[in-house]
Every structure is written in C-alpha cells, then in structure tokens.
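Sharing a chain and its predicted structure for anyone who wants a worked example. Both blocks are below, sequence first, tokens second.
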Amino acid sequence: SELTLGRYAEATATLAEAQGSFGESLRLLWLSREVWRFTGDSQKADQVLSEIGTKIERSSWRYKDAESLLMIGKFFLELGADAKKVRQEIFQSIEQKTPTFVGAYVASAELSLSKNDYALAAEDFHKALKVDPENPRILYGLARSFEPSDGALAQKYIDEALKINPRHLPSLLLMAESHLLAERYQQTEELLERVLTINPVEPHAWAMRAVLAHLNHDNELETLARAQALSGWQENPEVDYLIGKFLSQKYRFAEGALAQKRALNFQEDYLPAKIQLSNDLLRLGQEEEGWKLAREVFDADNYNVVAHNLTMLESEMSGFRTLSSDGFVVRMDAHEAEIYGDRVLHLLTQARDKLCRKYNYELVDPIAVEIFPRQQDFAIRTFGLPGGAGFLGVCFGKVITMNSPASQGRSPSNWEAVLWHEFCHVVTLSKTGNKMPRWLSEGISVYEERLENGGWGQSMTPAYREMILNGELTPVSRLSGAFLQPPSAEHLLFAYYESSLVVEYLVDTYGEEALLLILDELGKGLAINDAIARHVGPLEKIDVEFETFIQSRARSFSGQATYAKDDLPTRADAQAWKAWLEDHPKNYYGMQGYATALIQEQQWVQARVVIDQLVELAPELACSGGVLLMKARVLRELSETRDEVDVLEQIAQHSSDVLEVYRRLTEIGIERADWESVIVNARRTLAVNPLIPEPYRALASAGERREDSEVAIEGLKVLSRMEPFDPADIHFRVARLLKETGRMEEARRHALLALAEAPRYRDAHELLLSVVESPPKSATGNKPTPLFPEAPALPEDAP
C-alpha cells in the first residue's frame, strides 16, 4: 500500500520490520525488489533474484503453499524461462490444487496480457472474477483485455472497478490513456491530477504528463515531467517505454523510437521497449533493423504474440516482389505484381505530381507501399496483431500498408481510391511532421478522393442524413474522438465523411490558402485550435458554422420526400404497399418498398412509374440509396437499353466499386461495338478487381477492333500471365501488335512464347520470320540482334 501511494521511505521501514519476523517469505522478498528500486538502491534490487534462487534451492520443501509457488513462477519468468511452461506447470497447477486462490488466475491472465494474448487473458480474468467478483484489479484486467476489440465493454469494466474503488490507480490511468488517444487533453490532465493526489510520484502519470508537454511543445515541462517519473527509480525502463508508446499512438514514430532507445539504454533486454521499437522502425521504413529486433524478441520470448506474428510475416514477405520507380518502392505478391504492379506505380506517380504540387510539398525520401493478399498479414504488418477488419489501408508517413483486392472476398473496394487516399496522407503527414489531428488528416484524404473522381470518397447516404438531422453530429473540436470506440461501423464511416465535409467547408468558405496555412502552422508545432483560430476563426465559431453548413446539406439531400419509419408495413405485397401509400403519399421508404414489391412481382411498367416518382421526390438520395439500381433492372427487363445505359452511367459516375454496373456497361458496349465505352468500363472494373481476366479480354477486343494497339497490348499482355485457355493465341496476338508498333524485340519474345506453347503454329512461325527479317538496329551499329545467341566455335577435333 505504501508503494502504491508513493511513500517509499515508509515502505522501506515497513519492509525492514516485516523481514525481521518473516525472513523466509518469498512474497516479502519479491516485494523488497520494488522497494529497493524506488528508493534508488538498484544494487540491493539486483541481489533479490539471487536471494530468492538460493532460498528455493536450499529450502524447496518450505515453499509448497500457493502464495510461494506463485512467487516461484514469477521468479522463473524474470529469469527468462519459457512463459508457456510457467503458465501451464506452475500457475495452472496452483489453480487445480487450490481453485479458490485468485492469485493464480490473475497471474496467468496478466502473463497472457503482457504477451498481447488478449483472448486467453480475458478467459483467465473471467475465472478469477468468479472467485472474487468485487476485485477491481480483475475488472481492470478485463478492461485491458477487451480494449483492443470492444471499447464499450472495456469502459463497462473500468466503470465497475472504479465503482468498487474510486481511487484504483490502474483504472484511472487507463481512462486517462483513452482520453489521450482521443485528443481529449483537458480530460486527460484532470484524471492525471486525480492520480497524483493519490500518489504524487506515480511514474505512469508523470510519463503521460511528459507526453502532453511534448505534444504542446513545452520542452521544459516535458523534461521536468520525465525527471519526476524517474525520481524514485532512476533507471526504470517502463517510463521511456510508456512515453514512446503514447507518442507512437500519435503517429510520432521517430520521437517514439528515440524514447524506446532510451528505455533500452536503461535495460537492454527490456522486451516491451524492444518490440515497440521494432514496430516503430518498421513504420518509419527502417525495415532491416525493425525485422532484426522482432526476431531478437521472438528468440528471447517465443510466447510474445506480436514478435511471433512479425517473424512469421517477415518470412511470408520474403516471397514478395519489389517494384521500384522514381521514389517509390512497392512490395506485393509476385503474381499480383505481374498483373497490376505497373498500374500501382503509375497511380502513385500521378498522385505525387498532383498532390505534392497542390500542397506545396516536395517528397525527399522514398515512399514504401506494401500490398497484402491476405487481410491477416496486412493487420499484423499494420497493428502487430490480427484484426483491423474495417481498414483497407494505413499510412504511417512514409510507409503505406494496404489490403489487396484478393484479401477482400467477392466485394472488394476500389483499390485505386484507397491508394490515392493513403498517398494524400503521405503528403499531409510529411508536410506537418505527423503533427496533425486525425480528423484533419482523414478529412483531407477523403476530400481529395472526391475531387479526383466523383465516384471516390464518401457521399451523403440516408443513414448519414439521419445522423446529422437527429443530433448525432460530432463538433469539429471533438472530431478525433469520433474515430475511437464508435458505436458502430456506420458511425466510424460517418466520422470520415463528416471530417471531409469540414475540409470542404473550410476550403469553400476561406479558400485553399487558409488550409495550407493551417498545415504550415501545425508543422511548426502550433496546436490545431490555435492554427484554425489564426487563419479562420475560433473553433467554437467553426463548430456553429459547420453545423449549419452540414445540416443544410442534409436537408437539400432529402428532397421533397418524408422519412417516417414508425408504421411501415412488414412483409407486404405490392397491393398492401399501394394502400399504405394512399395515407403517406411522399414517404420515401414506403415508395421504395412498393417499388421493390412490384419488381418481385415482375410488374415492370408500374415499377418504373413508382421509381421515377421516387427519383423526382429525392434525386440525390436516389443516386446513393440503391433506387437507380432498381431502375436499371426494370429498364433491362423492359428492353429499353438506351435508358438503361443512361441510368447505369449515372450510377457509375457516383460510385467507386459497383462491379455489376461496370460489367453490364461493358457487355452493352461490346454488343453495340461502342469500344470507347468498353475501355472506360473495363478500366473501372480493374480499379476494383485487377485480378480477374474479364476486363483484360474486353481491353484486348476493344483495342483490336478500333485499331488501338496500345490498349490491345495492355489487355493481352496481362491475359498472357493469367493462365489463359489458349496461351499460344494470346502471345501471337501480342507479338503481331508489337511488330506493328515497331517493338521488334518484344514481338520476337512473344512469338517464341507462342511457339513454345504450340510448336506447329504456322502463323506464329511466319510472324517470327517476318520479325527476324526486319529487326531493329543494335545500339552499337548495323548488326541486327540475333534470333538466338551464337554458339562458340568448336575445335576441329571435337566429336
């Protein structure tokens, strides 16, 4: 208790008195280690382990009770014993022999928690809770276990812990961490003040204060807070580990890495700092050292889940292909690199040329992009652990990680839009030195998506409209918090959308120059509120003005329809819907239900009438709410292809990943010999899923039909890498087109590949001969490039 309260001198006196009466107690001896550390006597603290070892060796018979066995387990863990064996052979053995002894369950759970094995930790904490339901330490442990996956449940456990003990320091500190992550700095400071009234020298609290000072660019206070955190135990590696971890959560990876190095200077084998440093370096693009550290942690502790995951991932990524071009290094699956790696590099170059010029920033260091065909590998590379199912890509500054379309099942997102979004982060994070709030970073990226392509980014939806008009809008001053622990996936997406509208509002109202000036100020270290106030106005004013702006947008989106849902019919047929609409003639959801029922009953003509009325009532909402898809279906059934194309094109221009629309437009384009439309929609398809042959076949056909060799070659070359049914024909067509464009060396290669597949392919033989007869000149003179390299001359007596 005295240690918890920071009363180290009193703890020393109590320890001395206790050891006079209980000199053989392992628990007391273990506790003395903390006392000596926090009273500055590191030499005595270092001797404790050898004293415990001696006692166990000489008097093992004495230490058979549950409490002593628990200390022996912790002793072996400190010596570096196999954590899984300690858990199974000591802690679980105690649980079996003494099922009412809660300490064993807590020890097992905290061991799992320290290794990032959250599911197993939660399981053990639940066992402990059954034995001791009023223990705040257990409730706090459950909160830590669920924090990465279920923020609401974690908060519930913290609330329960603090209800039992309002002065429970770990729970108060965890709440402070949550506020810090959400950029609620005032609430963070208030909680730290509560902690420090209980323990004025609590290292965790002072470490967090050092982080707050760092974020506020108060170097003097930062130094003072760190010194206070180390005032008891001056070589405590946890202090700098915590400072670095919190800075990394703020995307300050370089500063975080420096803090971890300081922690390792105190204790070179402090594994939490070493694995955090590994992650920091990987996110900074310093991969060689980052992977090396992960391997070192795994070698020292093969139960460390993050180290294990990273080590396995490094092995997996060794089979990736690396593509380099003009400041970009792209790593991706070898097969995928062959198919669309060039498209990735081309898009990155376009994004750099446009966005760097717009935001007045020149990239100096290479940008690394890693694209993963398995979502689990993406999550491990990005977060260290599986999960993160809602993320398509993440940017750390100069490193981008992304999910490949292959990782997303049958409904992949538009990878081009994701890559554009993430590269915009590269520009804004680099420009500000990662010193920008999350809402602004995400808002600019989504805003730039929309500007580049009307179908990219996010637009208003019926769900967003309801959130805005029903009071679920987050004020601009608290927007970063909306990304943490949102009530649902819909609320998280809304946070992105709302942030993008804040950026749109700022640019439309105050101009692009104001946004650039705000970013410049952030890069100099000015807080976001002060930067906005200096170039736009007080944040309180922006909160009010933006709310007016976004509500106006939501109301105009609604059109003339009404949106009550209270008494909507359930499982109604068309006739029932029609009767209901007589009393609710402009109800959007009622008309939508009526149209759906008419389609199910194949009443196509009447369905078209209702859908047209619905579009007239709420034209913007119809575009995003699926109504136009219904209309396209009806028009197809009515064989009104011209109108169907108009509707499908309207959908395509407002959506980024509607594969069924792009495919239908491609199909119609082929039927009509509208090759320009075929090319446009094949490329729209490739922006969503470049791993299917269908769009490449369409490009090849369109290019050949309209005599556009480059388009045809684009499609055929990729088709040749996708195990086509007739590879000889594909290579022959490529060779013929390459010859027509004068690329004789490539033409010869593909003609040979055609013959390798079909040696008797006469047309390929003739094409090959024609290529050989008109070869390009070599770089050094008039001698043509030979079909096959000449063999060296054999001596006359050779057999």
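Comments welcome. The beta strands are 320-325, 328-333, 367-372, 393-395, 399-403.
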